[in-house]
Structures are given as C-alpha cells and as structure tokens.
Amino acid sequence: MAAVQETVDRVRAIEVDAYKYGFVSDIDSEKPPKGLDEDIVRYISARKAEPQWLLDWRLDAYRRWLTMTPPRWARVKFPEIDYQDLYYYAAPKSTKAAPKSLDEIDPELLRTYAKLGIPLVEQEILAGVERPRVAVDAVFDSVSVATTFKAELAKAGVIFCSFSEAVREHGELVKRYLGSVVPSTDNFYATLNSAVFSDGSFVYVPPGVRCPMELSTYFRINEKNTGQFERTLIIADKGAYVSYLEGCTAPKRDENQLHAAVVELIAHEDAEIKYSTVQNWYPGDSEGKGGVYNFVTKRGDCRGARSKISWTQVETGSAITWKYPSCILRGDSSRGEFYSIAISNGRQQVDSGTKMIHLGKNTTSRIISKGIAAGRSQNTYRGQVSAHAKATGARNFTNCDSLLIGDQCGAHTVPYIEAKNSSAVFEHEATTSKISDDQLFYCLQRGLSGEEATALIVNGFVRDVLQQLPMEFAVEAQKLIAISLEGSVG
Amino acid sequence: MTAQRAPASNAAELVLAEQFRALPREVASPARAAAFRRFEEAGLPNRRVEAWHYTDLRAALAAPAATLGAPDAAAIAEARKRLAVLERLAATRLVLLDGYFIAALSDPPPAGVALAPTPPLAPPASDPVLALNVALAQGGLAATFATQTAAKAIEIVHLVSAEGAGAIYSRVALTLEANAQASVVERFVGAGAATQRQVSTWFDLAPGAQATHVALIEDAPALHVESQVVRLAERAAFDGFGLVAGGALARRQIFATLEGVRGRVGFSGLGLVDGLRQADTTLEVVHAAPHGQSREFFRHIVADEGTGVFQGKVIVKPGAQKTDGGMKSQAILLSPHATMDAKPELEIFADDVVCGHGATVGALDAQQLFYLRSRGLPEAEAEAMLLEAFAAEAIGRVADPALAEALLSATRVWLAARGQGRRM
Amino acid sequence: MLEVKNLSASVNGQPILDGLSLTVRTGEVAAIMGPNGSGKSTLSYIIAGKPDYEVTSGEILLDGEDLLALAPEARAAKGVFLAFQYPIEIPGVATMTFLKAALNAQRRARGEADLTTPDFRRAVRGAAQSLKIEEEMLRRPLNVGFSGGEKKRMEVLQMALLSPQLCVLDETDSGLDIDALRVVADGVNALRDPARSFVVITHYQRLLEHIQPDVVHVMARGRIVASGGPELALELERNGYRDYANANAAA
Fold first, then answer.
1. A37/B198 Cα distance (integer angstroms)
2. Is B404 touching C (CB cutoff 8 A)?
3. What span, in angstroms and rounded, lies between the C-alpha atoms of B340 and A425?
4. Around Cβ B20, how many Cβ atoms within 10 Å?
5. If pLDDT is split at 50, 70 and 90, which confidence band does C127 have?
6. What is the largest CA-CA distance in chain B?
7. What is the pLDDT of residue A225?
8. Residue A489 domain-assigned?
9. Which residues share a beta bridge with A309?
10. Any CB–CB contact under 8 A between C88 and chain B?
11. Looking at residue A96, what is its pLDDT?
C-alpha cells in the first residue's frame, strides 16, 4: 500500500494539467536555418565531420524520402506536417567542442538533467550506496552532451558512446551495422531519420561479455520547432548480454514537436538484448494543444541462433505515438519478447504494438500488451505475428488487454496473425473492458478514494509488464502511470 | 498495415463498366448508377484495401466472364431433373437458376411469407464488391415475413445451369416484420471452374424479429463472393452459419449492424480448405445501440497448399454501453504448406463493455493423436476423428439438428475425399 | 511376455534411459518404483510408442516380437495398453464414439468383425457399472471436464473393454483420494488373469497395498537397480530411495 499512497501523494502534489518535465532550459544553441534540403543534410554531416560514405548514405536516403508519402494506415489524426517549417539540427553552443570530461559540461545542462532526475555526475552516483549504477548517455536536442562510466565500461570491452563519437572512433562497426536492421528505405519516418539523424547512442558488447551495468540514454527536446532525429545502434556479439534503458521528456510547448527516431538492435548467436523504454514526451494539454509526435521505428534482429531480444515499453507521453518495436527472428531457436503498457489520456493518440517475424526454426515469441485509455484519447494495439513457410516449430503467445476509463475514449485492437506452416502454434487472446465496478466498490468500501482505487487497480492490470522493467524504472513507471491518469476519474 | 488508395482502372474494371453500360434500359435506376459509381471510385480491391488484406480480388477477377442471362425453357427443364435428386433441407424450396428466381421450379411460399421481385438496395458505405453486386444483379428474390408469424423453414437453392460458364450476380432480400421468425438455408450448387458467382443476401429485422441462416457452399466455382448485410432493430436476434467446402476462391463477407437496443447476433462457420483453394470469411459487426450481444465462432481446417482467412471486426460505437462481444477463430493446419491468416479486431468507443477475442493456429494436437493411437486407432482414423470433432464443435452452433447433421455429413464427405487425395 | 533388453533412449537429445533391462512374465504383476526423474514414465511411453522418444539402443519384445518396429496403434492391437498418468482431454469426441472406434479398430487389426452396437453397449455398461461410472459420463466428450478420479476410472474402463495382454499403469494412483484409489484398484484386480501381465509404475508403496505385485523393481537413473519380492516395496517405504539414488552400479 505504501507505493500506492506515494503514487497518490504524487498525483495530488502536481497541479491540474501539470507535466512535471515541462520547463524550458535557457541554453544558447546553434541552429542552421529552418527547412530541409540537400544542403542541410550536408551541413549536419559536416558539423559532425563525417566520412564520405555516411554523407552519401544520408543523401541517398534524402533523395528517396522525397519520393515517399507518410503512412496512413495507423489510427491517428493530425494535420499535415510542414517539413520545411522545422529545424533539423540544434546543438547547445557550449558543447561545440565536445567536452573532454564531465567537468567541462555547461552547468545549466547539468542542472537540467538534475531537475529531470538524471545523474550525469559519476561521483554522486557512486556515493549513493543503494542506487544501482547506470551509465547514462544524455542527448540534448540534436547532440549527445555527456556519457558517464565510459572508462569503466571500456575495461570490460564494452563500447558505449554517442553515435557521432562511434562514427569517428568505431567507423567500421557503424558502417557494418548501420541500416542493416532498419534499411534507409524502410518507411517515411525512418528514411527521413536516415537523412538527418543528428546523434544518439551506440553500444557494442564484445563476444562473451555481460555488460557490467545498465546502459541508459536520456533524450531531451529543448529547442522550439526542432525535430529530434536520434539513431541508436546496439550490437550484442556472440554470447553477450546488455540491458538498455531509454527515457525521454520535452518542454511544454504549444506547437507540436516531431520526434522520429530509429533504433536498431542486433543480437548474434546466444546474445541477449533487453531494451526498456519509459516514454514520457510532453503529451499536449488536455485540449490537445501541443505535444510531441513520436514517430519511431524500432526493430531488433535476432541474427544468431538462440539469440534473444526483449522490448519493454511504458508509453505515457506524446500527443501521438506511432511505434512498433519488432523482432526479426532469423536465428534458429531465437526468441523475441514485447511487453508494453500504453496509457493515453486527454486527447492523446496511441497506435503502437509489435511485429514478430518468425523466419528461423523453433523460434518463439511472446507479446503482452496492456492498453489503458482515459479522457478523450484513442489507444490502438496493432501487431503482427507471422511464421514463414520454413519457420518450422514457431511459437507465439499473445495477450493484449485494454482498459477503458470514461466513455469518451476508444480502445482498439488490430492483430494480424499469419501462419504459413502447419508446425506453427499461435495463440492470441484479447479483452477490452472497463474497470470492474465490483473491484472499485470493494476498494471504496475499504476506504480508498476513487483515484486511489483506480491507481491500485490499474497497477494490478499492468503488473505483468511492470515486472519486466529494471527495478529503478519500474518504480518510476508506476508513479508515471498514476500521474498520467490524473483527472481521469470523475 | 497497408495504405488505402484508389487504383487506376484496369482491364477488368473496364470490362465490368462495359457490362454495366450494357444493362437493359428497363433495369437502369439511380440506385444502380450510384452503386456503380461507388465501385468505380474504389475499383476492384487488392491487398492494399484493409478489408481485403488477405484476398486479392484484382488478381482473382483479372478476366471477368460474361454475365449469364435469364435461363431458357430448356435450361429450366434440365434444372428440374437435377433438383429432383437434390435432398431437401427444408419444407419449402425456392430456386434461383443462374441468379434468376424461377417460380416454376419453386414451391409456393409458406404461410406468412410473401414473395416479390427485388428492388436495388443501397449498399453500406465502403465495400466496392457489394456495390458492384447491387449495380449488376438483375435476378434475385425478395421475401417478407409477416409480423408475429413463425414461418416454416425455407431453403433457397442457388443452382447454376449445366455449362455453368459465366458470371452470376444475384440478390436476395429478406425482410422480417416485428416479432416474425424465419429460418433460411441458402445452398450453392452446380457451379464449376468457369463460374464466377457474386451474390448478396440482405436481412432486415424489425423489432423482436428472429432469424437463423445457414449458407452451404459445396460446389466448386472459380469465384464465390457472398455478401451478407444484416440490420437488426431492437430485441432482434440473428444467428448465421456458413460452411465453405468448395470454390477456388470463396469470400464470405458479413456486415451486421445492431441498430436497436438489446439486439443479438451470433455468427459462426467452418472453412474446409484443400488443394490451392482459399476461403476467406470477413465480418464486421457494428454495435450501434446499448445492451447488444455478439458472438463469433469460426473454425478452419486447411490442407495441402490451401489458405484460410478470418477477419473479424467488432465495432462498439459511442453510447453502445453494456455491449457484450466475444469472438473466436481457430484453425488447424494439416500440411507444411497450408496457410492461415487471422485478424480479429476490436474497435471500441464505449467504456462499459466486455469484449474479447481469441485466435489460435496450430497443427493437430500430438498428445491427442498419440492417445487415440495408443488405443488402437490407425493414424488416419485418429486424425479423421479429431478433425470431425473439431468441425462438429463449430457446426454445434446450428440449432436445427437435421440441418446440423446435413452439415456434418458434408464435412465427412470433404474429410473422406481429402483422405483419398482427391482435388489436387 | 515382455522383455526389455539393454534399452537406452533420449528425449530432445537428453538421455533418459540408460541400458535398462526388464523381464515381465505372463500373468505376472510387476511393480516399478523409483524416484522422480528416474525415467519411469519414459519407459511407459516407449513401450506404447510415443513419438519424440528416440531409442538409441536396445530392444523391446512382446512375446518375442519386436515392439519398437510397430506404430502405436499396431502395438495396441497386439495387446499393449497404457493407462496414462495424465489422460488426454479430447473435446468434441464423445466418449462412447471413441470407445467404439478404438474397440473396433483393434478387432479389425486382429481380423475380427466389428462388435454390433447392442453388444458394444452391453460390454460398456457392464464395465462401467463395476467402476461406478455413470451413463452421463459416457455421453460427455472424452475426459473433458472429468475429475482426476473420473479420468483414472475411464482409463480402467478402457482397459477392461479392450482386454489387453500387457497393461502398463503409469502413476495411476496420482491425484486420487483413498476411495477413488480403491475403486480403481478393484477394477485392476478384477482384470488379473494368468494370461495377462501388468507393469505398475508408482512412486509410492500405497498403490501396492491395493494391487499386490509379484515382483518389485527399483528404477534409478534410467535403469533397474534392484529387484525383489513385495517386501522390497515396504523397505523402500521405510528407507526412501536415497540408497538407490546414490548407488553407483546396478544390482
């Protein structure tokens, strides 16, 4: 009950319509002009002193993007985006020359991350006895401003750095893997990202290494009218293991901000990647003004035999969420997992789910999705499970449940189940209901308020997924869920 | 996950446009013209159209056949002989030959039922193929079931004349007045590899009306597209079942709307797919009023290189509180090259609802098979027993025991033929 | 009757049986006792011919005939009956339909004529009565919604009906209370016959109080490690399997 009480206190502490992370940091930044053309692509590449092959790759993507149209199949509505009215690059000026150590980082930046609860100072983290150590890569608008614990990770042979640094220092690895899971031709937003991606995180875990700590990237959009296009590439070599966390926030702004990221995961033989996201971009106000358009392509490739990729996501933010973290189960006996909590309130629109593509033999996958719709939001689960004719012994279990709070919202379930051989065994189940009156009454009768009772029941509803999150994140996510549902109980 | 886009006219669409223009002057009407415009706007659906995600009609209907005209006296006489040996599934038999109602081959309607020619009906907004049916169908049948009357069961036999080469379009409209009760079986008989059949059946249920419907597709046309449109007023109830045991491509599409409070629908079906065949059942149930109940239960057995498709979409409109919806799709794949595609969708805009769906795909249960064999049943016999049981549970949704038995024996015929490696 | 010679077997590449040898004479009731994981159930499945079990060496002979070469249904026709530890539920298949199909399939395999419906019904009814199986249970789908005791009684009913030569009872006592156990044991005892052999697999001595064995074999680590008279079961009850689990070589 303590956790619930804390949750409720937290809800009460914030003002109506309060998005905790909505502040704007006053940081001088450097931006090229608005709009997108080949020169902007060249500018971004030049700013990062990229090799020719990467510039060519970007330009190729840009030219292809010009011929593409945005996807229309998702259940989301928004006005046409004017791609010429956006900034495609914004960097805090003070880090123009990359900081050599954490001491050189703009104190205002450090204060920003401190406010967000993200420690960028190793000592502080080390001083905290109980806090598990987490290495953080902080991405502020278009650039990575700091990466902690790099030295210690390097000792284990783990490469964890900003994408730009990876291009400079580990060019061969980047060249080998970039676009190998999400090709630059994949879809409208991923192709746009391929042309203009600014920064992001890069992880390489060498064969047989178990990454000694959680890795984490923290994304922050600060600048106005700025698209954020980060790119994350994680490679777990044979027998390696890594757990990676991603968090994100943005200031409250009346305009919509575009976030079109690409995440590529590659798991070789016997490797395992666990990727967790707590997505808390600014959702817009209760009338639907402002908020982030979160159009993200995330895909993992279980390339080697017995490899495993597990996605866990807690989606509470963004005005619109369009993301389908997927697994390509290429290696024999590989496994994909997708655990998701997607909460929508106000006028948020969520269209999210996963794809499990079974290609190898004896591959297994598991999907647990919990959608909660409140206010006037629309919440859609969209998923695909397919077994190729040669994917003998493929197994999938899917459970997707939706909970409705209030009669103005919508919850939708769109699963595609495609079995192309007789040895595949697919099981899918889904339910949609509102919070049970009996459960609510029982809680009320025991003295809980309506809001407390709702938080309690919702936490129970999403428990299976919360359990998949690393401890620290789980606590944070639980609080976030209560905050997201604030005001949803009449 | 594909976009919807209006395609440019292709050769097949031009042929269909020609057929529309060639309709006799006396059947032309604004309703037909509007329907054909709707078809032209959308064109023949391919996989980019979400409701046709797994069935590419553009490919299947690349060469539309010439429409069959009303049968002549010789065709009717020949049909009479074939009907004489066709076992009856209901007391009253009504016959459509090549899509045209033939009174001479039909029984008089039972008490409380009045027959009439069909008026063109406005199709629901989206489906282009149903619009095409409305635009082109000249033959058909309309029946009205009188208020407060429980009419005796009717079978409607859709027979194809001997050669069977050509396109058939027909429409059946069944109207149930308040508290009327109807029981209708539609059987599709006699089509061959040169038959392209597109039929529609329209049910309109007034308050308190109750209808049961069984469709039985046993013949083997190149194309069978059957659209069913069901509208229910308050307290009306509808139970429909479909057995698809034949047809190179069989598509059953059902559009049901519960317009009044406390409506109830139950749809179930069995798809038996072998060879290179494809059987697609796509249904959309719209709960537009509170306290509605819907149940869907579909099973497929897919052998050889066959493809089974089930798409079910339950939509709960704002305000349709206390909706109770449950949908289930299950499939057994018998061959390494068999395919089952399932898309059970929920689209829910009201909060006080209980809706759920389940879908399973898999091979025959190895444990069950071994158990039966350990008791001495040869493998083929054990397999047949399990398949029949699987099929029988779907057929169990049909309340009339005689009808259920007829469906079961049709299933046995299919299972036995499969065992002997027929239809390759 | 049954001769198992130097049998080794594995499941999914995992070796389970390791050179097991066992002889069961005609008319004999042989108990096989052993700790969990010793391979008892595997042995019963291999005798019955369950797919997925790979025999890596050795042979199984029934009256001198090689069982391993036969399909499960052919073994059944030869008179091998396995009473499953967990009888399989088969929705949609009525129990009566199943019983009749199984009985006639075996008769056909032996070149006998199908039983007439009245004869069949009489046979079932007789067996059902002695096992306290109600008519209503026979109308339900096979094993679906049956309690643990009902499932086990159904196994014994089938055993009675199919009159096998060799009955293998796999943990038939598991999940049964004392009353249900007595009914099942009485059913088995009624089938004891000089021409019929039993292999009774159990973890506990309890079942053997009701079904008296002629011989007791102890199984551990995939082979028979000790054999003796009924007194061996009592000794196991007192001392547990520890001695055998730790012992190196077989007796």
1. 51
2. no
3. 11
4. 19
5. confident
6. 69
7. 65
8. no
9. A273, A336
10. yes
11. 45
Spatial CA neighbour of B122 closest among B20, B49, B24, B231 = B231
Number of domains forming the structure of chain A? 1
Pull the structure tokens for residue B390.
């699987």
Q: What is the DSSP letter of C112?
A: P
Instruction: Give the pLDDT confidence of A268-290 residue by residue, as tens digits.
Output: 999 999 998 888 777 887 777 88
With both helix axes pointing from N to C terminus, report the angle between B30-42 and B128-136 in degrees, rounded to the nearest 10. Answer: 140
pLDDT at B206 (0 to 100): 97
Residue A392, in any domain of the structure: yes
Q: Do residues B32 and B145 touch, judged by C-beta distance below 8 A?
A: no
B310, closest residue in chain A (CA to CA):
A417
Which pair of structure tokens corresponds to residue B290?
């509170």
Token pair listed for A212: 């000694």
User: Look-up: residue for tokens 């009888």?
Assistant: C87
Q: Which residues of chain B have pLDDT under 70?
A: 1-8, 119-125, 419-424
The answer for B 359-418 residues in CB contact with A (under 8 A) is 359-363
Task: Please identify which residue in the block is written with the tokens 């099929």.
Answer: B391
In angstroms, the CA C244 to CA C2 distance is 24
Per-domain boundaries in chain C: 2-85+149-246
Q: Establish if A99 belongs to a structural domain.
A: yes
Q: How many residues appear in chain A?
A: 490
**Topology annotation, domain C2-85+149-246:** Rossmann fold (3.40.50)
CA dist B210 and B390 (Å) reads 28
Residues of the domain holding A424: 2-484
Chain B interface disruption, residue of A75, A417, A436, A485, most B CBs within 10 A: A417
Give the β-pairing of C65-66 and C53-62: antiparallel
Look at B343 and C102; give whichever has higher pLDDT: B343
The answer to which of B255-269, B396-410, C91-105, C234-248 has the lowest mean pLDDT is C234-248
What ranges in A98-229 are assigned the alpha helix state H?
A: 107-115, 122-127, 150-155, 163-169, 171-177, 188-196
Q: pLDDT (tens digit, 9 = 90+) per residue, C195-218?
A: 999 999 998 888 898 999 999 999
Phi, psi of A150 (to 5 degrees): -60, -40
Chains A and B in direct contact, meaning 3 or more beta-carbon pairs closer than 8 angstroms:
yes
Average the pLDDT over A396-419 and give the result: 91
**Lookup: tokens for C232:** 């061996």
Nearest CA in chain B to A376: B349
